[in-house]
Specification:
Blueprint lengths: L3 H91 L2 H24 L4 H31 L1 H8 L8 H72 L5 H27 L1 H17 L6 H32 L5 E3 L1 H15 L13 E4 L5 E3 L1 H18 L7 E9 L2 E8 L31 H11 L3 E7 L3 E9 L4
Parallel strand pairs: 2-4
Antiparallel strand pairs: 1-3, 4-5, 5-7, 6-7
Helix pairs in contact: 1-2, 1-3, 1-5, 1-6, 1-7, 2-3, 3-4, 3-5, 5-6, 5-8, 6-8, 7-8, 8-11, 9-10, 10-11
Length: about 500
């Protein structure tokens, strides 16, 4: 009969462990969901505020255009009146009927401009009072000019000069100019106020976009890091349990099964979150693009730079999300096991990488990369996934050797006992071996993004594919002398 301590270990402990495994998953899921909802709410609030501000900015720009139209109408009115006076004098001196036709055309334009000024200033009581004074002055001036023409047609030039010389109250050219000047001064003052208001609205809109994007990005990155830490912890626990399963205790088998289920659920949840993040990111980029296209004239150089920064960061975050989706898919994708001609596969990948390398991005002193491929033993595994491993490693070598004068990349392989070893060596910037363990982790980069592009997920994908094939990955490097990335795959059945 087993002792009581054995019963406790075999009966109570497994239930306690199972509860301990389930509780953290529920907790991290709730935290991630809460953070995701917070980020979405922030984006919606920021988008609504930005939309409202953009509507207000559009209204302000319309009022600015309105003030400019009033000023243009007043200038046109004065110009037409002056033109009518000039043509009238020519007609009185030459008696040419063509001048009389031009005079009539100018008078019609003066009347049209008066009607336009009435319509444009109908919303402003002060301008309406100014317009009444202007209208009276223009009417008196037109009456005087008409009387002069009538006198000329009936009694000749001396009579016209006498009529035009009669002083009239509120009917001189100077009084018309003064009335127009008062109305124009009001519109100038309104235009200055509206320009200030538009500048404030543009500033508020840009600040809201930048703050919203920064806060939402911080929340999303925190969510990704939390999910990644949780996945690493669960993978580590799963590995320990699988190792312990070699003793094939039933309690450990149950723990492994439970951890595998919860890990798949968390990975699926992380994939769903990453997938759903693309919609709000497209909304941010769309709003910024609309501002660039629709508010081009109202933005100063700094505002245009802000929008460019927003769109560049949206593009970088989009690339990061796509890589994370790819990383998550690898955890669920089944692995095919077949004979793979690694030599042919690598030569195919080399041709693809060289053809897809962007032209014009290398320095003046840097030549096209030389890639040497030695004999490579075949492997057993999933050809599509192994192809992704080779693409990532060779493209990585091309990128980090892009600043040396003669980039050289060497691909080699050999049989080593029960494994096949494969390596990609480059003469690029290398790395400090102190940080070698960080290379194959998500988000871990040893160089700034401004120096070398990328999202920090490519080598993590390599690690995941190789380990799912039962293999291992490692790297060696020396700063400014190059690096070697290697992986090993089990030979399997021949």
């Amino acid at each position: 009969m087993p002792p009581k301590g054995s019963i406790l270990r075999d009966g109570v402990a497994p239930a306690r462990v199972a509860a301990g495994v389930a509780a953290p998953f529920g907790s991290i899921e709730i935290k991630m969901l809460s953070g995701f909802l917070l980020a979405i709410s922030l984006l919606l609030f920021g988008g609504a505020y930005t939309y409202r501000t953009s509507v207000q900015l559009a209204g302000s720009l319309e009022w600015m255009a309105h003030s400019q139209e009033v000023r243009a109408t007043l200038a046109g009115l004065y110009g037409s009146l002056a033109g009518a006076e000039l043509v009238q004098r020519d007609y009185l001196l030459t008696a040419q009927h063509a001048r009389l036709y031009e005079y009539t055309r100018f008078i019609m334009q003066v009347r049209d401009d008066l009607a336009s000024a009435t319509r444009l200033t109908s919303d402003n009581p002060a301008q309406q009072r100014n317009w009444a004074v202007l209208h009276s002055a223009v009417d008196n001036r037109l009456d005087a000019m008409t009387d002069g023409l009538v006198a000329y047609q009936r009694y000749g030039l001396p009579a016209a000069r006498a009529v035009l010389g009669i002083p009239r109250p509120n009917g001189s050219t100077e009084e018309v100019r003064a009335a127009i000047g008062r109305m124009d001064a009001v519109e100038v003052r309104l235009l200055t106020q509206r320009r200030t208001a538009s500048a404030n609205l543009r500033h508020a809109m840009l600040v809201s976009l930048i703050v919203t994007l920064a806060l939402a990005s911080a929340i999303f990155i925190a969510l990704f890091r939390a999910a990644h830490r949780e996945m690493r912890a669960r993978n580590s626990a799963e590995s320990d349990l699988l190792e312990s399963n070699r003793l094939l205790h039933a309690e450990l088998r149950d723990k492994a099964a439970l951890l595998e289920v919860t890990n798949k659920e968390l990975e699926s949840f992380s994939y769903s979150v990453s997938h759903d993040l693309r919609a709000p990111l497209r909304a941010i980029d769309g709003f910024a693009q609309m501002m660039e296209e629709d508010c081009q004239e109202g933005l100063d150089a700094e505002g245009k730079r802000y929008l460019s920064v927003i769109r560049q960061n949206s593009s970088r975050m989009g690339a990061l999300i796509e890589d994370l989706l790819e990383f998550s898919r690898l955890g669920r994708q089944p692995i095919a096991h077949g004979e793979v001609n690694v030599d042919a596969l690598v030569r195919e990948v080399v041709a693809e990488v060289l053809n897809s390398e962007p032209r014009g991005e290398r320095g003046v002193a840097s030549a096209a990369p030389q890639i040497e491929v030695g004999p490579l033993p075949p492997a057993r595994g999933d050809r599509g996934l192994l192809r992704q491993v080779w693409i990532n490693l060779i493209a990585n070598a091309v990128k980090y050797s892009g600043k040396v004068q003669r980039p050289l990349i060497q691909v080699s392989g050999c049989e080593a006992g029960a494994e096949n070893h494969y390596s990609v060596r480059d003469n690029g910037v290398g790395f400090n071996m102190q940080y070698a363990e960080q290379l194959f982790r998500v988000f871990q980069r040893l160089h700034h993004a401004e120096e070398f592009g990328g999202t920090g997920v490519g080598l993590a994908i390599v690690h995941r594919i190789v380990t799912r094939h039962g293999g291992r990955v490692w790297a060696e490097g020396v700063v400014n002398e190059g690096a070697v990335f290697s992986f090993a795959l089990p030979k399997g059945e021949s």
